[in-house]
Amino acid sequence: MTTAPPPAEKRASRSAFHADALTPLAPRRLATDLMTVTFGIGVRSPTGNVATEDARRVRMARRVARARLKYCGLHALVEDVTLIVSELVTNAILHSGGTQVTFTMTVHDGILHLAVRDEMPGGPAACVADSESERGRGLFLVDFLARQHGGKWGTTDEGATIYCDLALTGAPQ
Question: Strands of 111-117's sheet, edge to edge?
Fold first, then answer.
């Protein structure tokens, strides 16, 4: 059994669709782009390690941030933002004592704003890690990357929220 080919106007729209699908995404207009993800976290383990389920949450936050940046045409920031998100979310899980974390990413007035809220007041403290330590460098990395992108990091809400702002110099706005 054979079917008749679709009318010419349908063939044209199909080929146009396929051509569009192969074209790289144009940068999106970023007047005020908002993304928020809230997730529960487990009780901190006695060893101080991140529980398996919470480690999955960190990976999820990185994937969501990466996808959102690519959607917005901010490909050049993907690697640095992924590292910042990983550090901020992991710190919130390890040090908050709360039961949930909220990760927010907004773009407004040429600034990419990343924020992680963990329910518990009390600001983060940058540690001085020795050369053998496996921990204690995260906030130094966040500070370095923020400065590299003309931004800054800090806390609000008596330390319940830690944020990192990156300037979108040269990025679509």
Answer: 32-40, 100-108, 111-117, 161-167, 152-156
